[in-house]
Give the backbone structure.
Amino acid sequence: MKMLASRIERDLQVGEWKQCAVYEDELKRLWPLNEKERETKIAQFAKQYGFRLRFYRKGVCAIFDKWPRSTRRSALAKVKEGTAGALRPRMLAVHVYEVRPRSDKCGVDLISDVLPFGRLRFDESKAVTNAIDYAKFRSRSHNAVIRVYDDAGNVIQTHDHKGDFKDW
């Protein structure tokens, strides 16, 4: 159940939608189709992990989302301590980037979950500077933390970028 809860949490944080659909093939691993009060048990699971069961149709899927802001804190406060590490309430979006030297010594890789393909290669003469500038540009409307690592894996520079999103 913890794995399903962490997957739902990840999909709600990273996904472009405000809900997460879990299809029957995953649901029946935890709650068999012929189980009595199946929908009630799925709703209890959602409540236990700070989610809300928005839609359920037997044999199709269950759709989860976050509680509205007014009740979210009280629902998250009820989450057990053992699962608190896997579940984090949605805070302000902060993009995290890593600039790491390539193992073939040809430039650096810019690594982040917010990049479309996970990593970008920079291999020109100013590779580190270009990677940092690209990360700042990519996060122009979000706060960002950019960490530059050396060959040993130690952080040698940290850049904090404050997003300049303007509400019109």
Notes: The chain is about 30% helix and 30% strand. Confidence is low (pLDDT under 50) at residues 70-92. The longest helix spans residues 2-14.
